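Field log, afternoon session.

UNIT: design team B
ACTIVITY: writing a sequence onto a fixed backbone
BACKBONE:
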């Protein structure tokens, strides 16, 4: 039988990954600021990765002869009280801030999502107990809870990651629980039960892929909160120990000379502002891709 030229040729159903990618690209094209956030974040991440080639200076090298110098050609963002180059310290500080932020957010995403899925799947007393614990953790401001944990464990990169991750678990648990409760009543889940699939297999293979986009959106937005919390802990003296450069500790060191050498605070403060701003723009684009209705209602 001859096929008419007008007859559409079916190429089969599109994969969920391809559909998701197309939805993200469509949302990003509709909201151009999302591209700005993505580009800014990628540029900062690449500068942090290739810091030795970007700066060309040692962030720990001290030169008392040029201390508290304003921005010049040799020192683009000036120098601090010990004569260290502010620009190189900001770039190297991005390494620590992004490392702590990404690691703590990823850890909270895995643990929180698992807790929320288990609570939503089993329901009953397990759900009630788990969510009551999450509500207790949410009752504490993230900075206060992180401060308590770091003060108990001691300031180090590992302890800061643990502290920030613990403060970030409840939001991920809540956002994973609600769709799990809705999905477990769907027909394809009933079919999985009829085939004798284990609870773990259903949760990981069939439920997780359906709620993963919402979790990733929360992760992009909560990463900004993790970076801000790390900077706040460093500012009050509970961050990574000096002389390691971190944005929060740089603000703290420059606070005493803020009236005479404002660049000591403006430069690291501006770095924190730019990263959080970029992540918020990126998160808005991902949110619009996941649920376009949110954009229409806004």
């Amino acid at each position: 039988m001859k096929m008419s030229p007008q007859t559409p040729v079916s190429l089969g159903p599109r994969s969920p990954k391809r559909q998701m990618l197309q939805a993200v690209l469509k949302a990003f094209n509709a909201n151009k600021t999302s591209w700005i956030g993505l580009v800014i974040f990628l540029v900062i991440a690449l500068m942090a990765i290739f810091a030795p080639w970007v700066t060309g200076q040692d962030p720990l090298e001290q030169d008392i002869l040029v201390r508290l110098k304003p921005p010049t050609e040799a020192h683009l963002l000036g120098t601090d009280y010990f004569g260290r180059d502010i620009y190189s310290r900001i770039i190297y500080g991005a390494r620590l801030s992004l490392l702590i932020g990404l690691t703590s957010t990823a850890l909270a995403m895995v643990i929180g999502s698992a807790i929320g899925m288990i609570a939503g799947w089993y329901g009953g007393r397990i759900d009630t107990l788990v969510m009551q614990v999450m509500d207790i953790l949410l009752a504490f401001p993230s900075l206060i809870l992180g401060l308590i944990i770091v003060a108990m464990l001691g300031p180090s990169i590992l302890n800061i990651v643990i502290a920030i991750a613990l403060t970030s678990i409840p939001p991920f648990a809540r956002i994973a629980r609600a769709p799990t409760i809705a999905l477990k009543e769907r027909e394809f889940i009933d079919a999985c039960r009829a085939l004798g699939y284990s609870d773990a297999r259903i949760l990981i293979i069939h439920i997780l892929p359906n709620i993963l986009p919402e979790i990733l959106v929360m992760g992009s937005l909560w990463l900004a909160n993790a970076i801000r919390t790390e900077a706040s802990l460093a500012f009050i003296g509970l961050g990574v120990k000096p002389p390691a450069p971190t944005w929060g500790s740089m603000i703290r060191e420059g606070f005493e000379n803020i009236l005479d050498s404002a660049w000591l605070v403006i430069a690291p403060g501006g770095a924190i502002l730019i990263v959080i701003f970029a992540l918020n723009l990126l998160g808005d684009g991902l949110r619009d891709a996941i649920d376009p209705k949110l954009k229409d209602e806004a």
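LOG NOTE: Residues 1-14, 293-298 have pLDDT under 50 and may be disordered.
NEXT ACTIVITY: expression trials, pending approval
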